[in-house]
Specification:
Layout lengths: L7 H31 L6 H22 L2 H5 L4 H33 L4 H6 L1 H19 L10 E3 L4 E3 L4 H38 L22 E10 L12 H15 L7 E10 L11 H47 L6 H10 L3 H12 L1 H9 L1 H10 L4 H11 L6 H15 L1
Antiparallel strand pairs: 1-2, 3-4
Helix pairs in contact: 1-2, 1-10, 1-11, 2-4, 2-11, 4-6, 4-7, 7-9, 9-10, 9-11
Length: about 425
Amino acid sequence: MTVTGFDLEQESILFTTERVASAISLAGCAFVVFTFLWSSRFRKPVNRLILYATLGNVVMNIGTLISVDGLLAGVDAPLCQFQAFTIQMFLPADAFWNLSMAINTYLTVFKRYTPSQCRAMEKYYFAVNYGAFFLIAFTYCFVHDSKSKMYGAATLWCWVSTEFDKVRLATCYVPAWCAILASFVIYVLSGRELFRRRRQLLNPRTTTATLPDAIENPFTSFKTTEVQITTELASPRPFDSSSTNSQMELQQAQLEQQYLGGGQKDYEQYSITIERGLRAPLRSATAPNEDEIKLRNTAMASNRAAWAYTKCCVLFFVSLMITWIPSSLFRAYTLVHSSDPNFGIAYAAGLVLPLMGFWNALIYVTISWDAVLDMFAGDIDKRVWRQWHGHWPGLKKRQNEWTGNNRDSWVGRSRRWSLKSREAR
């Protein structure tokens, strides 16, 4: 009999499955971290929470990559204790990060929270999602009874041992399912509110006076500012020949008058004033069909927002169900039949639990789909290069050396020597 309770072939299948799933999840986590740091296009408010959950997924996947090696090392070995600690801390935390995203959705839809206000909530999310579960997982390192430690063999890997199944149920699965159900309720209420506004927009009796608030997808919406450009005509600068004291100044003024004043025709100069401010509120219609155009555009935008929100919610729900149902069934089965584990349920649990990072990456890609398309088309690379060019210290120094902007560079010294030579001539 092996350390998992299955035969050698079944244990080998579990071992391979857990590691392959963990590797796939780590690849998804790497994509999330890289793109979030690479471009501001990916830094949507909800993506910040996905990033925080992804960091926990990375640590947990390190534990699941160990697989049965922790059991083979012995339940008292540091490898086994480390694996059990990472799973106990970061497994339920993932469900609570999903609840944090749902809470942000509720605050955005019902309380009109701005991204900065949602960002101020992150410290509370960290305190609960990581802080509380860290205290639980750390405390378990020192708990034991007369027979065994709290952390020990748990069939698939090292975790809370089978002797403490009820404790594992109370501190992991029960809180996780409470978070999942709360998230589901919040998404349903938020979706009902969004579709209520959509029906109001599509109502033929709706006018601009009774127009509801604009519907935005709370997963992707931003509070934006508008750049207003105003133009005005400026009179050409008059030329006064009496103000010149030399023929050179007269010629210079004539050239300036020719190019700036208009040459043969006395065109007036064109100046632009750019102002940046908050988006101005919509004004009442002045043109005959402006109301209809406004209602049609708002209704079309509401349809897109409602459909995008529905897709995100369905994806959240499916990922949570796929992740937690097989694992919960397996732990419930072992609670009743602790001496006779079922390989099929164990295999399903060993497959889906390491894939949490993959599901978070899939949700991240869905929310940032436009940015992902631009990235693969190369548009983001050009934009990021323009943003980083001259701001990265090493790149800035190298750029200054080759352009001569740095006075101490050899190009700068050569330019100064060339100018002095010309002056000497």
